[in-house]
Design brief:
Non-ribosomal Peptide Synthetase Peptidyl Carrier Protein, Chain A, about 150 residues, 2 domains, 2 strands, two-stranded antiparallel sheet
């Protein structure tokens, strides 16, 4: 025999402050539950353990966490996983800042070690600023060429 317990379910949801789908009725006490018609009746049934609130269902984060750890290691970052342009992932300005700082650091090193004089340092500094050198290794090869 199927009973219509929608009233009791609604009242229990209001009393327990949760949704109707989270209400659990004890199958052995359905007769008592069907007779309940007020919130006070429902409260008494809750105390007796005939009605309970089910726990909130969570979303399993295990797979997401695993993927995040792999990405932290540098995996899963190939062309197939990318969206957006190269400049969207790392803006042009940021790339420039990283490059120019590295070049200027190298130039200071070269000057300090006496590999280049003051005049050459200034000339190479200006060249770096104008975007002549692609990288530190490019600058190094240019300096080597100059020495010959």
């Amino acid at each position: 025999m199927i009973m219509n317990l929608s009233l009791q379910r609604r009242l229990a949801a209001e009393v327990l402050k949760c949704g109707k789908n989270r209400i659990w009725f004890n199958p052995e006490m359905l007769e008592d539950i069907s007779t309940a018609s007020t919130k006070q009746d429902i409260r008494e049934l809750i105390e007796r353990g005939a009605i309970k609130r089910k726990p909130v269902k969570g979303v399993c984060r295990a797979r997401i966490n695993e993927r995040r750890l792999k990405k932290a290691k540098g995996r899963r970052k190939g062309y197939g996983s990318r969206k957006g342009k190269k400049t969207a992932r790392m803006p042009r300005k940021r790339v420039w800042i990283l490059r120019i700082r590295a070049l200027r650091r190298r130039l200071r090193e070269l000057k300090k070690n006496g590999e280049i004089d003051r005049r050459t340092y200034r000339r190479l500094y200006r060249m770096a600023k104008s975007g002549v050198f692609r990288s530190v290794s490019h600058l190094n090869s240019y300096v080597q060429e100059m020495k010959r």
